[in-house]
Amino acid sequence: MNELRSILGDVVTRLFTDLVTKDVVEDAEKGQWPEALWQAVEENGLTLPVVPESKGGAGGTWGGAYIVMRAAGRHAVPLPLVETIVGAWLLSESGLDVPTGPLTVAPVHRDEALRLGRAGGGWRLSGTAARVPWGGTAGHVVVLTEGEGRAMIALAARGAGAVTRDQNLAREPRDTLTFDGAPVVAAAPAGRRVPANAIWLYGALARSAQMAGGLDYLLRQASQYATERRQFGKPIGSFQAIQQNLAVLAGHTAAAGTAAANACRAADRGDAAFEIAVAKVRVGEAVGIGASIAHQTHGAIGFTYEHALQFTTRRLWSWRAEFGGEGEWAVELGRSVCERGADALWPQLTAR
């Protein structure tokens, strides 16, 4: 399995290095859909890593999906790739077919809920979901909702609801979708392994993996720039202050990657709520410190649109707040500890 993951890592790195160019990212930020990039991603099976082979997927694990999601963050891939991975998993776990094309998921906020009701021989969807990633662009929206008193997974086609366009700081689409008795393509009871907060939970897992990849990029870029940029006749990387900052960045990058990878391993075992909460908190903290160090190392040039650094840092700052910021997830951790009691804390930590 380690060898297979190594091969997968080589494939995604080579693919994204070749196809995710600065021009592609810039065009995506102007609203142009990168069709050639999407086709390459889909043809290489990167959208369905955790879908069983019997349903057309790769039959892999969340550990394998982590490689894809981390690479997507490292290369600032301007696609709803991780949303498609999560949405496809929700569909397959609930016995529904996974359509081709990009997917997104909704609702993405804990306090929002969409309603699914019977209408004749089918189901109809109502309600509003805000800040949906690529909500107006994705071919289908995978919805986790309630219908007839039980958790349901529904699949709505693009155009089923009204779209209010918006963007995040990274100029990625974050649209509001409004459904008014819209018919859905398919619906089924949520699978046994799909928790009631699955979109919020696995969205946080995906963002953690993406941010871990983004931090990889920041570390590599800052280290390279520190060896190339000369001041007072020598590389700035020879100054102790710069070396110290890069060491701090390296430490946070390593910790973030470990936390996100551990959360994906926990997702393969079963209940991963604790590990995902830890990952979102730890990676979010690392992003706050890491992005600051990377920009300090680059100076003013890193903030210019012509420089590649800001494409990643703007995404990191956006992803940090999506599917719950570290403050929200820290509260979740604290609540879970209090519910179990102080005596259970150490056994719980050492058992994981």
Describe the structure.
This protein is an alpha+beta fold. It has 2 domains: 188 residues, Butyryl-CoA Dehydrogenase, subunit A, domain 2 (Beta Barrel), CATH 2.40.110; 153 residues, Butyryl-CoA Dehydrogenase, subunit A, domain 3 (Up-down Bundle), CATH 1.20.140.10. The chain starts with a helix and ends with a helix. Helix 4 packs across helix 6 and helix 6 runs antiparallel to helix 7. The relative contact order is 0.10. The model has no long low-confidence stretch (mean pLDDT 95). The strands form 3 sheets. A 4-stranded mixed sheet has the order 1-4-5-8, with helices on one face. Strand 4 and strand 5 form a beta hairpin. It is globular, with a radius of gyration of 21 Å. The protein is built from 11 helices and 10 strands.
Protein topology:
Blueprint: H1 2-19, H2 22-29, H3 35-43, H4 62-74, H5 81-93, E1 103-106, E2 115-119, E3 122-133, E4 140-147, E5 150-157, E6 162-164, E7 174-183, E8 186-189, H6 198-228, E9 230-231, E10 234-235, H7 240-269, H8 273-298, H9 309-321, H10 326-340, H11 345-350
Parallel strand pairs: 1-4
Antiparallel strand pairs: 2-3, 3-7, 4-5, 5-8, 6-7, 9-10
Helix pairs in contact: 1-4, 4-6, 4-7, 5-6, 6-7, 6-8, 6-9, 7-8, 8-9, 8-10
